[in-house]
Specification:
elongated; mainly alpha
Length: 121
């Protein structure tokens, strides 16, 4: 219960610090300005802009279209995660782990109604 209360207090503090608004745009606070290092935030419903420029502490006044940047970033992440090299490395690691696992004696007996391989799923 204490953890829930602390988590709730942290969320309220974050909301208060951000003016009571939540980031409802996928790249808000993730994109970073190359001039000042501050986060890009949504300046209107269609564009991201450096938060430093909005506060007149950064000279970068470039605004980026959400329609252009969001699909590009999402596609890049998908391509990186699903690349043939990454998948091959994951397969190789899994094979090695399975090989090592087969060589170890099983120290636990499956609980009734559960199988070792699925954990009862």
């Amino acid at each position: 219960m204490k953890q829930i209360r602390k988590s709730s207090q942290k969320q309220r503090a974050k909301m208060k610090a951000s003016g009571g608004r939540r980031n409802s745009y996928i790249l808000s606070r993730i994109l970073k300005c190359s001039s000042c290092g501050r986060s890009y935030t949504v300046c209107d419903s269609r564009r991201y802009k450096c938060s430093g420029a909005s506060e007149n502490v950064c000279e970068n006044k470039l605004a980026i279209s959400r329609k252009k940047i969001e699909p590009l970033v999402i596609q890049t992440i998908q391509d990186d995660l699903l690349s043939k090299d990454i998948l091959a490395a994951v397969k190789k690691e899994m094979r090695q782990l399975l090989k090592e696992d087969k060589q170890r004696p099983c120290s636990r007996q499956p609980q009734s109604g559960r199988t070792a391989a699925t954990g009862g799923l």
